[in-house]
Amino acid sequence: MKSITIKGSERENVGKKATKAVRDAGMVPCVIYGGNQPVHFTADERAFKELVYTPNAHTVVVELEGKKMDVILQDIQFHPVSDKILHIDFFQLNDDKEIVMEVPVKVVGKSPGVMAGGVLRLNQRRLKVKALPKNLPDFVEADITPLEMGNKLYVTKIKTDNFKLMHPDNTVVCQVRISRAAMKAAQEAAKAAKAGDKKKK
């Protein structure tokens, strides 16, 4: 999985006044969990652009005064009105421990159902995967090649290499729905066939 680097500064004072001052200065208060003790730090709000405002999934290298920590985004809080980032929680990665995170779904292949006029509906844009940090995929491939009109692609049909999908077996990733145009054409064809049968009689 691709990684981005965020440079920040550790902070000792984590009270409300200090946190407000941090935000007023255009910085974001953050915490890293998963280690021996939480690590509090701040970073420029602009540094999170590639991490937060993207459909892609990333691991993160947090760099604090030369010290580097591998983490993933765990939780983020936005201001209800301005949508500014208020706070971010990270979780420290351990090379030997599996973690769970959401990654985007990438549709591949050509569906006969779509080529025949059906509409592809993506039910799950992201899927939860469980893996060691080194095996985290950038995306999960959903191959729609077998899908005819009206078919569904279940999570059990997704190929998984060195990772597990954390969803029930009946989870639908995507499906090919019959479009209105295709349905109308089928109805008209059925009517025409019926009318032809009546004439023969």
Give an overview in words:
By secondary structure, this protein is α+β, with helices and mostly antiparallel strands. 19% of the residues lie in helices and 41% in strands. Strands 1-3-2-6-5-4 form a 6-stranded mixed beta barrel. A 4-stranded mixed sheet has the order 10-7-9-12, with no helix packed on it. The longest helix is centred in the C-terminal third of the chain and has 21 residues, at 180-200. The model has no long low-confidence stretch (mean pLDDT 88).
Counting structural domains, the number is: 2
- Strand line-up in the sheet with most strands: 1-3-2-6-5-4
Main CATH class of the largest domain = Mainly Beta
Radius of gyration: 24 Å
- Structural class by secondary-structure content: alpha+beta
